[in-house]
Amino acid sequence: MARKIIYVACGGAVATSTVAANKVKELLKDKGIDAEVNQCRISELNSYKDTADAFVTTAKVSKDYGIPVIHGAPFITGIKQEQAEEALLQALTEE
């Protein structure tokens, strides 16, 4: 599997995306998935859609970027985190 590129986004690319990005990094490391996890603002997602394999956003995003967008609030709250993890892993392993 080629190295995956994931962008974790929130409103300011500071607080919630940092927490979510750390959990995503930990998950991918535990699953042995080679990945680059970056943080950005939701307003910047469009500029990364051509290079990313998936987006994880801590706010709901309804725009279609042509790649999987995983709702990342569960990585902050812990509620339904397993479902979010499974959705991300499935998005990264489907090609």
Topology of helices and strands:
Blueprint: E1 4-10, H1 16-30, E2 35-41, H2 45-48, E3 54-57, E4 69-71, H3 73-77, H4 81-93
3D structure, described in words:
This protein has helices at residues 16-30, 45-48, 73-77, 81-93; strands at residues 4-10, 35-41, 54-57, 69-71. It has 95 residues and is of the alpha/beta class. The chain has one domain (4-94): Rossmann fold, CATH 3.40.50.2300.
Quick summary:
By secondary structure, the chain is an alpha/beta fold.
Question: Keywords for this structure?
Answer:
globular; 22% strand; alpha/beta; Rossmann fold; four-stranded parallel sheet
Residue share in β-strands:
15-25%
Distance between the termini: 10 Å
The tally of strands reads 4
CATH topology descriptor = Rossmann fold
The parts where pLDDT drops under 50 for at least 5 residues are none
Total of domains: 1
Given helix and strand content, the structural type is: alpha/beta
What's the CATH H-level homologous superfamily? Answer: Response regulator
* Widest β-sheet, arrangement of strands: 2-1-3-4
Compressed to H and E, one letter per element, the order equals EHEHEEHH
Q: Which architecture per CATH?
A: 3-Layer(aba) Sandwich
Largest sheet descriptor? 4 strands, parallel
Query: What's the mean pLDDT score?
Result: 94
Number of helices: 4
